[in-house]
Design brief:
Blueprint (H helix, E strand, L loop, with lengths): L5 H7 L15 E3 L10 H17 L2 E5 L5 H15 L3 H4 L11 E4 L11 E5 L4 E4 L9 E4 L10 H26 L17 E7 L11 E4 L5 E6 L5 E4 L6 E3 L7 E5 L1 H6 L9 E3 L7 E8 L6 E2 L17 E2 H11 L23
Parallel strand pairs: 1-2
Antiparallel strand pairs: 2-12, 3-4, 4-7, 5-6, 7-14, 8-13, 9-12, 9-14, 10-11, 10-13, 15-16
Helix pairs in contact: 2-5, 3-5
Length: 354
């Protein structure tokens, strides 16, 4: 996006509030200016203000004209449909397990019995995470993606797609950095050896949709999530102003972006990771493809130095992302006897409702 005048960063703190109201649903933000060879400074300033406003009020927004080619997205959506249409025994050849959490799984093999879905997780880069959540164990393991025999072009299609969506992730991280009054590239270094991964979700028609959810209410632990959903829809976001669940209407060719726990911590609670869930459909199957943008395993997550001061002291103690991630993954297979790890466990002071 080029160099940024320091005066611009200062001006972000005094940006105007936008007219998008909560009743209109999560904002739709046009990123087309990022493709301009000489973007208008006022328009760019407005874009950063829109990102800030949406992140602060909602923790969610949609982006259009984002630069990911439509044909690239169409190819991975087709690959997902082809894979999930395979017989269960064929999909199970690449089933994930406690040793390697990449691969196929369905809710028959998880403790989340109310979740109504099947999933395929993978990464196209070498990813290392701690073997154990124990703080004194420094051993690492490589996360190995498993690729099915069919569709035969699946790996190539997935690599092409992740390449494009990673470019979008850096654009968004740079916009968020600017919206916090920080230099454009301030967050990029955390993702040098990123642990990001992509998930294909399939939600079959549910005969009793009132008894199940596609995914129960939760917050995303990483930095950002970039979600492609089909025209069926089902994602609901918990509105911050009144706690109501708001349906996210599918927008053709758009991506749904949500701020994760890590950005909440980096921003020292200026931006909030918001609860969301997925409702199932009684008649139609649904497909979605989220890309979870996560930093390197050795990243220590804490409020950014430039944001904290005497008036705004750090609200979180530092935590290691790799250990946090491993604890989350371990809980999918073992009952740990304690509540699954959350960022509020690292709060410097806890509120009365925690």
């Amino acid at each position: 996006m080029g160099e940024v005048d320091p005066a611009f960063i200062q001006d972000v703190e005094h940006r105007p509030k936008l007219t998008n109201t909560e009743s209109e649903g999560i904002p739709i933000i046009d990123l087309s200016i990022l493709s301009s060879p000489e973007p208008d400074s006022d328009e760019f300033r407005r874009l950063v203000a829109e990102i800030s406003d949406a992140s602060e009020k909602w923790g969610f927004f949609q982006v259009i004209n984002h630069g990911v080619p439509s044909e690239t997205r169409q190819k991975i959506e087709l690959a997902a449909r082809q894979f999930f249409a395979l017989p269960k025994e064929e999909k199970s050849k690449v089933r994930r397990d406690e040793v390697n959490p990449y691969g196929y799984y369905d809710t028959e093999h998880t403790k989340n019995v109310r979740d109504w879905k099947e999933v395929f997780d993978f990464s196209v880069e070498s990813t290392f995470i701690p073997v154990s959540p124990e703080p004194d164990d420094e051993a690492l393991k490589e996360m190995i993606s498993q690729w099915p025999e069919y569709p035969p072009e699946m790996r190539e299609v997935c690599e092409e797609y992740v390449h494009e969506v990673q470019k979008l992730s850096y654009k968004l991280l740079e916009l968020i950095s600017l919206s916090l009054g920080l230099p454009e590239k301030r967050l990029n270094g955390f993702f040098k050896d990123q642990t990001s991964f992509l998930r294909m979700n399939h939600y079959p028609p549910c005969p009793s949709p009132h008894l199940a959810l596609g995914v129960g209410r939760h917050k995303d632990a990483g930095a950002l999530t970039i979600l492609a959903q089909d025209d069926v829809g089902g994602l609901e976001v918990k509105r911050k102003t009144d706690g109501e669940w708001v349906f996210v209407k599918p927008t053709p060719d758009a991506y749904i972006i949500n701020v994760g726990d890590i950005i909440q911590v980096w921003s020292n609670d200026k931006y909030e990771s918001v609860e969301h869930r997925v409702k199932v459909n009684s008649e139609r199957e649904r497909f979605s493809i989220p890309f979870f943008v996560n930093p390197a395993h050795y990243t220590w997550v804490q409020p950014l130095d430039e944001i904290v001061n005497e008036e705004n002291p750090a609200k979180y103690k530092p935590y290691n992302w790799g250990k946090f991630f491993t604890t989350r993954k371990t809980s999918n297979y073992k009952k740990l006897g304690v509540e699954n790890i959350q960022i509020y466990h690292f709060k410097t002071t806890k509120s009365s409702d925690e």
